[in-house]
Amino acid sequence: MKICVIGAGYVGLVTGVCFADLGNIVHCVDTDAHKIKKLNYGSVPIFEPGLEELLKKCYEDKRLIFTTDLKKSVTCSDIIFICVGTPTIKITNSVNLKYVFKVAKDIRTYFKKFKIVIIKSTVPVTTGDKVEKIINLNVRRKLFEVVSNPEFLREGEAMRDFKYPDRIIIGTENKRVTKILANLYDPIIKKGAIYFKTSRRSAELIKYASNAFLATKISFINELANLCEKIGVNSEDIAIGMGLDKRIGSRFLRTGPAYGGSCFPKDTRALVTTGEKFKANLSIVKSVIKSNEDRRSLLTKRIYEIMSNKLKNKIITFLGVTFKANTDDMRMSSSLSMIPNLLRKGAIIRYCDPSGKKKEFDKYSNVSFYSNVPKACFKSDLIVIHTEWNEFKLLEFKKIVKKSNFKIYDMRNLYSSKLMKKNKIKYFCIGK
Predict the structure, then answer these.
(1) Closest by alpha carbon to 127, among 147, 152, 151?
(2) What span, in angstroms and rounded, lies between the C-alpha atoms of 146 and 227?
(3) Using CA atoms, how far apart are residues 253 and 236, in angstroms rounded to an integer?
(4) Which residues are catalytic?
(5) What average pLDDT does the segment 278-305 reach?
(6) Digit-coded pLDDT (tens) for 368-394
(7) Which among 151, 300, 342, 410 could bridge 385 via Cys, Cβ 3.0 to 4.6 Å?
(8) pTM score, whole prediction
(9) 3-class SS at 428?
């Protein structure tokens, strides 16, 4: 099939590359000419394991075209995926849909035959209705169908998530379109993915509901970890015991920092706003948002306690600063609030992250980036394991720190408390 993917960001690139890998001809369009130029040279602007290699292969096989030419790409395609950004409007916590609507306005003049317009971006309920109205101003209704097909890609595991998803959600009541998209996704369906057909509004809400529920699980186990610390039990045992119940499941029951990234913070707030729009009080989701915000300050206070509130001129090394491993995404990472607070107390901050130096910390004079773990940890007073990168899981701290009385705060519980005690290392973790 001939596919046009509009938006060469995270979702758009993964979607375009994976569909090209399945044998389709994909035009990936973006207004950023510099980004398109880099992509044509094989340079990928995001950090995602496996993406760059597959992109280069599909490009060389001439199944993947990167361009700024929207007219040509839309005209020659049968299916159009809208994968543009939907950022949060901070004042209202609502979703800024101007990029989605602009795409709808731009493409509506290029319809000469039937096309399927698929909204892949995460959008509030009724967005598909509005996109349909915009296109219908120029295009006869029988020449297009607007479909909701939300993505469920986890950063760091996006390639696998696309190829082996739990389900494919298709929001349309058009039987012809349903069959076409079943054919498009057939190689993935054959691997075990459930092809679920529903209404467009239902599909839009499913994405938000899913992310809100997962955010709830994370916040729940983090709050429970606080209780476990008070009463002296292991939160990991609690999580395992809960997860063995098939009604609950084990996934997303790991204690750690506050959830971050581009999805959970944005989508939970957007869901609350949608509830308010339709006069439905989503009190549980509101509580989850509050709990997650509290989590950031709680873990910072925990560092104060570990250091006996003596932070002036103390060297604190963060191992990882991204919100999770295998991504360079800093959006809503706990480190963004923790590090400035520690600096205000007079601490000297070092950080090491496999995804590279972060521009977010360039404005601070007492923050230094190290590409090498031993150099980052050398003579540190406190090591904070913030992100669960594999590079941080088998470190011999005494050998690399080379200082007595240093402390470790393991926010991901990567190490054994017993082993640390045996090695006479002052070790602090979460939920134990």
Answers:
(1) 147
(2) 48
(3) 9
(4) 263
(5) 96
(6) 999 999 999 999 999 999 999 999 999
(7) 410
(8) 0.93
(9) strand
